[in-house]
Specification:
The chain is built from three helices and no strands. The protein is an all-alpha fold.
């Protein structure tokens, strides 16, 4: 089942690339590099969450970071 999840994530990211690709051709090199970097980070995070479902998600990490500011509210 994990292979199906990873394949599904990959297919979704390829569709995003195909939809956004024509707009990237007119963009600069920095925009393209930022787009590909964000896509790769998203793919890695999604695959890790499929492989290890008990792992904390990004929302829990943000909650953990902002809990330290709670006394200042």
């Amino acid at each position: 089942m994990k292979v199906v999840g990873i394949l599904g994530i990959t297919v979704i990211l390829v569709f995003i690339f195909l939809i956004q690709g024509p707009g990237l051709k007119r963009s600069g090199k920095r925009v393209k590099m930022a787009f590909f970097s964000i896509m790769m980070v998203n793919w890695i995070l999604a695959v890790l969450l499929v492989m290890f479902p008990e792992m904390s998600g990004p929302g829990q990490m943000v909650d953990f970071i902002y809990q330290s500011f709670k006394p200042f509210w």
